[in-house]
Design a protein that fits this description.
The complex is a heterodimer. Chain A is an alpha/beta fold. Chain A is built from 8 helices and 10 strands. In chain A, helix 7 packs across helix 8. The relative contact order of chain A is 0.18. In chain A, the strands form 2 sheets. Chain A has a 6-stranded mixed β-sheet with strand order 6-7-8-3-9-10, with helices on both faces. In chain A, helix 6 links the parallel strand 7 and strand 8. The two termini of chain A are about 30 Å apart. Chain B is mainly alpha-helical. Chain B has a single domain, classed as Orthogonal Bundle (MetI-like fold). In chain B, helix 2 packs across helix 10. The longest helix of chain B has about 35 residues. Chain B is flat, with a radius of gyration of 23 Å. The chains are: A alpha/beta, B mainly alpha. Chains A and B meet through helix 3 of A and helix 7, helix 8 and helix 11 of B.
Chain lengths: ~250, ~260
């Protein structure tokens, strides 16, 4: 379980001081899909840099599986917003990267990656290079890279933000299917209300900068979810509720 | 088929320009009856090249030998130094960097006699001059690639807990390869130039020697033969590095859309 305890973060000092996060407390339980939603520029990327250990919070603690990991890197698996596949690595070798970093021998990591490629709809692309793939395919490789890594908690930083609407919807369904099968703990950051409601068990709504949690919403829809879920009256009602929360300021 | 056409399309205009230049040169020399010691016609130069080929070949091989040796030494040192400076403490790096820049400000003409005094008339001082000219472009290029990988990729590796050495081998080193090849191309050109210059300053054989002796005896045609050989060798050297780079750094070609 991931737990953020009263995390605050600011950059700079004195009159140039910028408050980014204010007293953020949230949890991702074992096997839970949690989402954080907030307006653009509310400090969501900072949140991941804190959880990932790249930054030290100005106040508060981050705990994972009963251990204090504040400011410590290497405890999460991560799907970044931009395409960070390594252009000199083939698809299989990119997918195996996180395993390699964790110390798995190269050949074993590659073999593991190869067995997975057909399951993410990329059979036959083992030796292809990332540039030859479409944006959606690249993001699937990036996701597989995180899925294969041994760290239990997956952090997804607007993983579909750069994709067109159609591909995005396809990828959400794809992610949902994979997740419902494997049930890893997931923390998704997004600014799409539909995406958060469709995928997550629990949604945290953030305010604009400095970001605070304005509401925690438990998403009631049963799994497996499909495109029909999005047309249910409760879904529409929740969407409007979050919309109002985000637009209130 | 398509490839051959593309090559022709790319190589056509520069080849045509050179041909026109040579033709104009030939016409000028014939029309105004220019003395051969002043400016020989391209055909006369070609004739001389064929006639004196055995001797030219001997000199060419000597020059090529020191050029390749100097290039290998210079780029080797440049690469090792780049990795060392990249991994060194910032203070050490700040201490060494001005010295390295300084090494490029020493006039070769001033340095060469000193090297001869220190290392004799053998191959070593010449190779050192060439190496001195070659190590700098590759060092700067490699450092650029090692120091500035994609920040998002770097963040990613940090976040998943990659160690310093993993970041070097997985990200920084491959990221520097395209830069290294740019540096190698510059160094390859410098190495031929450096070889000829070092031979001017004292050697028994080599194109630099041949060129100087020919000029002293007003055999301008032979000077041009040496120039021609140097130009062709430089181009070949450059092209083979470029080819090797394309083979090894495939991801970059694709990004450029070639």
């Amino acid at each position: 379980m991931l737990e953020l305890k009263q995390i605050s973060m600011h950059y700079g000092a004195g009159s140039g001081r910028i408050e980014v996060l204010q007293d953020i407390s949230l949890q991702v339980k074992q096997g839970e899909f949690a989402a954080v939603i907030g307006p653009s520029g509310c400090g969501k990327s900072t949140l991941f840099k804190l959880i990932g250990g790249l930054l030290q919070p100005t106040a508060g603690e981050i705990w994972l599986e009963g251990k204090d990991i504040t400011g410590k890197a290497g405890h999460i698996s991560y799907v970044p917003q931009q395409n960070t596949l390594f252009p000199w690595r083939s698809v299989e070798s990119n997918a195996a990267l996180a395993l390699e970093v964790a110390g798995t021998p190269k050949e074993a990591a590659l073999a593991e990656a190869r067995t997975w490629l057909p399951r993410i709809g990329l059979s036959g692309y083992d030796k292809a290079y990332p540039e030859t793939l479409s944006g959606g395919m690249q993001q699937r490789v990036s996701f597989l890279r995180a899925l294969l890594s041994p760290q239990e908690l997956m952090c997804l930083d607007e993983p579909f933000g750069a994709l067109d609407a159609l591909t995005r919807a396809e990828m959400q369904q794809w992610l949902l299917d994979i997740w419902e099968e494997h049930r890893r703990s997931v923390l998704l950051v997004t600014h799409s209300i539909e995406e958060a409601l469709f995928l997550a068990d629990r949604v945290y709504v953030l305010s604009p900068k400095p970001a605070r949690i304005v509401q925690e919403i438990t998403v009631p829809f049963a799994r497996p979810r499909t495109a029909q879920t999005m047309t249910m009256p409760e879904f529409v009602a929740l969407r409007q509720q979050i919309h109002a929360l985000l637009g209130a300021r | 088929m398509l490839n051959a056409r593309r090559v022709l399309f790319k190589a056509g205009p520069p080849l045509l320009a050179v041909l026109i230049l040579l033709l104009a040169w030939e016409v000028y020399v014939t029309a105004y009856d220019v003395e051969a010691w002043l400016l020989p016609a391209p055909t006369a130069i070609l004739r001389e090249a064929v006639n004196s080929w055995p001797r030219v070949k001997m000199h060419t091989l000597a020059t090529l030998q020191i050029a390749v040796a100097g290039f290998a030494l210079g780029t080797g040192v440049g690469l090792v130094l780049a990795v060392a400076l990249h991994s060194a403490f910032p203070a050490l790096r700040q201490a060494l960097y001005p010295l390295i820049i300084l090494s490029q400000n020493i006039p070769i003409i001033a340095l060469a006699p000193l090297l001869v005094v220190w290392f004799g008339f053998g191959i070593l001082p010449k190779v050192l001059i060439i190496a001195l000219m070659c190590f700098f472009p590759i060092l700067i290029a490699a450092l650029q690639g090692l120091d500035y990988p994609d920040p998002a990729m770097l963040d990613y590796l940090h976040m998943i807990g990659a160690k310093r050495s993993q970041i070097f081998w997985m990200l920084e080193l491959p990221n520097s390869l395209p830069h290294v090849f740019s540096g190698l191309k510059v160094s390859a050109t410098y190495s031929m130039m450096g070889a000829v210059i070092s031979e001017w300053l004292g050697a028994q054989k080599g194109l630099g020697v041949y060129m100087r002796l020919s000029a002293a005896s007003f055999r301008t045609d032979r000077v041009f033969v040496s120039i021609g050989v140097i130009v062709v060798l430089s181009l070949l050297f450059f092209a083979s590095i470029a080819y090797l780079g394309k083979k090894l750094v495939r991801w970059n070609n694709r990004r450029e859309g070639n």
